[in-house]
Design goal:
The complex is a heterodimer of chains A (276) and B (303). In chain A, 76% of the residues lie in helices and 0% in strands. Chain A has one domain: Orthogonal Bundle (MetI-like fold), CATH 1.10.3720.10. Chain A is globular and about 65 Å long. Chain A has 11 helices and no strands. In chain A, helix 5 crosses helix 6 and helix 7 packs antiparallel against helix 8. In chain B, helix 3 packs parallel to helix 6, helix 4 packs across helix 6 and helix 9 packs antiparallel against helix 12. Chain B has a domain of 210 residues: Orthogonal Bundle (MetI-like fold), CATH 1.10.3720.10. The longest helix of chain B has 35 residues. Helices cover 74% and strands 3% of the residues of chain B. Classes of the chains: A mainly alpha (276), B mainly alpha (303). The interface between A and B is large, with 88 and 87 residues.
């Protein structure tokens, strides 16, 4: 009898686990479906005008350009720093600075992004007197750096220790061992980290709220002038009461979703594990 | 000669340290004015009285801090069972062909731009929760204080908590799943050799990874408490300090997102918002340090 109860409990448990798992991943399908169903008509009916026109023409061209500009500039600023920091954390794992660096990277990885935005506003936007692309870039770079640094660190740790020993035994300097031998061996992992970091910051909104400013009626022309981004535009459109703006927001989020999936999915499928 | 490496990398490390301490300094120095004027009341009272006349300005952000903690708690309470079940399923019971797709889906969810969650939450999830869950609960069970607030718009602590739960589930799952994979295989063999059912075995194995579950929960909490745009679109943005799930509220980050843009008009609002940011800073730091420490200690002890 008790044997039966145990079997019944086991069945219930298995069904429960499967059900909860389905529930956990269901939202993604619903989100993708809704964004496609509601966004596609907007994009299709707008056609090229939707992708290249300004906001008053019914397009999100400047926002798309802004997203690419900000992502590109933040990569330019953040990737080298992240790479060097990751190398440092790998090379000196037991020194005090090395340990602190690792902890700090972990903390910054989880840090509320809005706080980064407000900080950058205080140190860049207030002195300059205007929102600007550089302020948005700095914000995004601060968020990008810990991601890529942690990835670099992890990728370097995968290299077997013997390669280190061999390189040093050849009489190479530390700089050469790390930059010419070990880093190239880990290039795949490092590159992956960089791309995932970029996919992440391309969709960020909170750090841009008080730094980028927004620019939707003309294309960005200067890094010291305000710039828009797709995510920022969606945030503004959702808060408007007008249904036309909501339709536009769905269209814009379809574009953002495609940009994100286009970067993220190929990388994700090309490797076994990622850390987010 | 040997120190070229240090000379190259140390400036970058230094830059990261400077930015971090710089953030702490900026938040503190900008918040000082608020502490001078209101003392600790800025954190302990719930008032928001903006005025052109600086003498009449009174602010206390207790409601926002409460909202941050409350929504993050709801999120974790919903996300925890989901992520544990997900981890168990993926590691132990999923058909082979489904395993990798499930992991990829979860990773995509973890990285998906938060504004898309926000848009979907505000225009799809909130109306659904309001009509299918909040209204029935309110109609039949409103004598329970938790359900006593009439859900007219649907924008509420509850909606924010559920949306956050969806957003942090993949994140907690990743930590728990990784730990669950690391349980040595002999443990499984031993448990089944004793004649345990799969339920009993899973229970024992979960006990083995309890520290990882705890730290996954804490880190998910940390992530939920800092989330901004998605929450500010579904929480209703009202100062409200209550247990009532269906009441609209505020969180620290949504308060900053909403008020910072026009705060410069008033004398004391900006310092108060910096004080709010400082509180979020400190909570985030404490929560994340705790979570990271537990996880690290566990990882060191795993064979």
């Amino acid at each position: 009898m008790s044997r039966n109860i145990r079997r019944v409990k086991e069945r219930a448990f298995l069904c429960g686990v499967a059900l909860l798992t389905a529930l956990a991943v269901l939202p993604l399908f619903h989100i993708i479906m809704t964004v496609t169903v509601r966004g596609l008509p907007e994009v299709v009916s707008g056609g090229l005008r939707f992708l290249t026109g300004t906001l008053s023409e019914g397009g999100i061209g400047p926002a798309i350009a802004g997203t690419f500009l900000l992502t590109f500039l933040s990569a330019l600023l953040g990737l080298p720093v992240a790479f060097l920091v990751g190398l440092y954390a790998y090379e000196f794992p037991n020194s005090a600075v090395g340990r602190w660096t690792k902890t700090l990277l972990q903390i910054m990885l989880e840090f509320p992004t809005i706080l980064v935005g407000v900080f950058v506003m205080q140190v860049l936007v207030v002195p300059m007197g205007t929102y600007s692309a550089i302020a948005g870039t700095l914000s995004l770079a601060i968020i990008l750096t810990p991601y890529v640094a942690v990835y670099t660190h992890e990728a370097m740790r995968q290299i077997p220790f013997t390669y280190r020993e061999t390189s040093f035994s050849l009489g190479l300097t530390r700089t050469r061992v790390l930059f010419r031998v070990l880093a190239p061996m880990a290039r795949r992992g490092i590159l992956t980290g960089g791309l995932i970091g970029l996919a992440k910051v391309a969709g960020e909104t909170a750090p841009l709220l008080f730094t980028a400013g927004g620019l939707y009626e003309s294309y960005p022309h200067s890094v010291t002038a305000p710039v828009g981004s797709i995510s920022l535009l969606i945030y503004q459109l959702v808060q408007s009461p007008s249904p036309a703006d909501h339709r536009m927001a769905w269209g814009a989020s379809l574009v953002l979703l495609l940009i994100f999936l286009d970067i993220f999915v190929p990388i994700r499928l090309s490797l076994r594990e990622v850390k987010l | 000669m040997r120190d070229t490496f240090r000379a190259l990398t140390l400036p970058a490390v230094l830059a990261v340290f400077i930015i971090f301490t710089g953030m702490l300094v900026v938040y503190f120095t900008n918040a000082v004015l608020a502490f001078h004027r209101f003392g600790l009341d800025v954190y302990l009272t719930n008032v928001w009285h903006a005025s052109e006349d600086p003498e009449k300005e009174i602010y206390g952000i207790a409601a926002a801090i409460w909202g941050s903690v409350y929504t993050a708690l709801i999120a974790v309470a919903v996300a925890l069972p989901l992520s544990i079940a997900y981890s168990i399923f993926v590691v132990d019971y999923s058909p082979r062909w489904l395993k990798n797709p499930l992991i990829v889906i979860s990773d995509i969810m973890a990285g998906l731009p938060t504004i898309i969650y926000g848009l979907w939450g505000a225009l799809v999830l909130v109306p659904f929760l309001r009509d299918e869950i909040m209204k029935p609960l309110y109609e039949h069970l409103s004598f329970i204080p938790l359900f006593s607030y009439p859900p007219t718009t649907g924008y509420s602590y509850f909606s924010a908590g559920v949306l956050l739960a969806i957003m942090v589930t993949p994140f907690a799952s990743a930590i728990i799943r990784e730990a669950y994979t690391m349980v040595p295989f002999i443990y499984r063999e031993a448990v089944y050799a004793l004649g345990a059912t799969r339920l009993e075995a899973t229970r024992i194995l979960l006990g083995y990874i309890r520290p990882a579950v705890v730290s996954g929960t804490i880190l998910a909490f940390g992530r939920a408490i800092g989330e901004t745009v998605a929450v500010s679109l579904v929480i209703g943005n009202t100062f409200n300090m209550t247990w009532a799930l269906f009441a609209p509220g505020y969180t620290v980050s949504s308060l900053i997102a909403n008020q910072f843009g026009n705060a410069f008009i008033y004398e004391y609002m900006t310092p108060v918002l910096y004080a709010a940011g400082l509180a979020l800073f400190v909570i985030g730091l404490a929560v994340n340090l705790l979570g990271i420490r537990i996880l690290r200690r566990w990882e060191e002890n795993v064979p």
